[in-house]
Design goal:
The protein has about 270 residues and is α/β, with parallel strands linked by helices. The protein has a single domain (about 30-274), classed as Rossmann fold (3-Layer(aba) Sandwich). Helices cover about 40% and strands about 15% of the residues. The chain has a seven-stranded mixed sheet, sandwiched between helices. The longest helix is centred in the last third of the chain and has 23 residues, at about 185-205.
Length: about 270
């Protein structure tokens, strides 16, 4: 758009302004400090530590998607902690290869390459649980994607254990380098903004339930267990007071600590509505 405007002499100034604004936007989003805040606003989920504290399930379903390296690391961690559960992969062949390289034997991996979208993946999980009534299942997905997973599980009345994985590269939370733009931070900001847009789209389509701004934790139909996992640290700066207020409003997605400057590790069990 900016290049089109720039090529027209009468609109060249507007084109320069457009390109300058776009460049500045990318530079800001690529700052680890900004990307980290956007990721925190998109999701309050964190990996469960130690994972041994969560009841073991017979199957661990790993959803393919962004931040695949983090999902592979979490699957390997859970596999070791839970004494070799069955690993079901909803993803491509290369994802299975990475799991094998992480130490999970091919004999313990089952691949289902069909579901391509998050909604299709969760519908597959629903059908799998329906076909294996006695089986218990856990879902591994990126911590950024987990709010959408939890909302779909609630809508589909699934009883599953949610195991959020870290993003591929966590942003720096302190030091001067948190203000130096990087491609990893830009990717994280992109993923966080995408998840916010996806949540809004799913609600608009009626695929997940709408929550009122006055909803409370007691009104949710799924339960989440939290434990302290250490925070950003007392010296972590906030971009603005507005961010803290927005984070507090979004706490209706899960039961979180009243202290919004701390992070929480999450182990969620979604239960049918009574």
């Amino acid at each position: 758009m900016g290049l089109v405007l720039y090529q027209r002499p009468q609109l060249r100034r507007l084109g320069i302004a457009w390109l300058s604004m776009l460049s500045c936007s990318y530079a800001v989003l690529a700052c680890p400090a900004v990307a980290g805040e956007l990721a925190d606003l998109a999701s309050s989920y964190r990996p469960v530590r130690p994972v041994e504290s969560v009841p073991r399930t017979e199957s661990v379903i790993v959803l393919g998607g962004d931040n695949s390296a983090g999902r592979v690391r979490e699957a390997a961690r859970v596999y070791l902690a839970w004494a070799a559960p069955s690993i079901i992969v909803l993803g491509e062949d290369w994802f299975v290869d990475h799991l094998r390289e992480a130490g999970i034997p091919l004999s313990r991996i089952r691949q289902e390459a069909g579901p391509a979208t998050t909604r299709a993946q969760m519908e597959w999980v629903r059908d799998y649980i329906a076909a294996h009534e006695a089986a218990s299942a856990a879902i591994i997905a990126s911590r950024l994607q987990m709010p959408r997973i939890a909302a779909l599980a609630e809508t589909l009345h699934l009883r599953v254990t949610l195991l959020p994985s870290e993003v591929d590269v966590e942003p720096r939370r302190s030091g001067e380098r948190r203000w130096i733009p990087s491609l990893a931070a830009l990717a994280l900001a992109r993923d966080a903004l995408y998840e916010d847009a996806a949540i809004a789209y799913y609600r608009a389509r009626g695929w997940i339930r709408r929550r009122s701004s006055t909803s409370t934790t007691a009104q949710t139909t799924w339960r989440a267990g939290f434990r302290r996992a250490g925070g950003h640290g007392p010296g972590t700066p906030r971009l603005s007071c507005l961010i803290s207020h927005v984070r507090a409003m979004r706490q209706s997605r899960a039961t979180v600590s009243a202290d919004t400057s701390r992070t929480c590790a999450v182990s969620s069990t979604v239960r049918p509505e009574k």
